[in-house]
Amino acid sequence: MSATRFAPSPTGLLHVGNARTALINWLVARASGGSFLLRLDDTDRERSEERYADAIQQDMRWLGLDWDRLERQSGRQARYDDAIATLKAAGRLYACYETPEELSLKRAALRQAGRPPIYDRAALNLTDVDKATLEGEGRRPHWRFLLRAEAIEWDDRVHGAQHFEAENLSDPVLIREDGYALYTLTSVVDDIELGIDTVIRGDDHVSNTATQIQLFRALGAEPPAFAHHSLLAGADGEKLSKRIGSLSLRQLREAGYEPMTVNSVLARIGSADPIEPFTSLDQLVASFDLGRLGRNPARFGTELLDDLNPKVLHATDYAQVAARLGDLGVDGPALWDAVRGNLSKLDEARDWARICIGPVEPLREELAFLDEAADLLPEDLDWSAWTGALKQKTGRKGRALFRPLRLALTGRDHGPEMAALLPLIGRRRAEARLRGQTA
Questions:
Q1: Does the pLDDT value for residue 243 go beyond 50?
Q2: CA 210, CA 153: separation in Å to the nearest integer?
Q3: What is the pTM of this model?
Q4: CA 45, CA 31: separation in Å to the nearest integer?
């Protein structure tokens, strides 16, 4: 069983990249019979907003991704304080007093010399007097985690064997000058104490993982398993995160895409498996394999949703959408079964319901033929028998037979099979429309 987590910061709306991470974590947990934690990383008081915390939960529910436990980092400060005390006592946290400008100059000088911008640990040479002098000048320290000079290795469940030399990494800042504990620390503390044994996130976190593995062990815990999935890119290969604002889940929902369309695309994009229309999360759980995810950026565009959304609707049973159809004024499985094969978005079913129950202004071509059709309209509204009789009497066939009937009965020149629509329209309305009456 795998215990996974999704840990968004409530500083904005969820976008498709976030949703992919959430979905993958949820699928791995559910496939193993494990647990899925939703953790709101809301310790950034300046940027975190309750409206975004609410929106994240709404979007997760829209996708159908339930959680077994909800936690907020803002309520766990005491646990971070304990971890900080442990690290300080072990000599693994040290105070640094460089300003952001001074650090920027150091990095620029290293790059100019052709060297990696690794922090030089100058702060380790400060005496107590030096520190008191700096603090007397108004400086407040930020605190770095002292990495041990050793190889850091793990078997990534997507990228395979990973190897880092700690001496090639900068000691990460764990605490800002204002005392704010940063993600690198809080995430590790939470994963330890909340029992997370599998961390799945974007591959932009691979180097973070190397430093966090040492941090796990410094806090007396063995690291969890790690999997770093590829990031989403646009059709042109550009990182999607740079222009993600147009791809929030809220906007996709408002555009009329089905949640299972989004789930189906995000579960398979960038993997060795084809994108297919799934109508339930249970189907996705049964088919998902983390090992099938590729290592290259996955290219995402709404054209993938446009292509798949009709297929998802065509395969969806009435019971799955009955409540939503009721909100649209559409009632009964007969109409759904008649029209779902012609829908691109669910709300189009409302238009077909209106066509069935009227009033509809008929489009009449070849009036004499339509009058004959009205005369021969059977009581049982058997489309095949009716059009067969019309063909025998008038000699019409194909488009010449069917187009005038469809235009008169629906006001449209295309749509669902008329054999299914005609009984829904009913005999009274059908005859009236054939004779040119709005009904």
A1: no
A2: 8
A3: 0.91
A4: 36
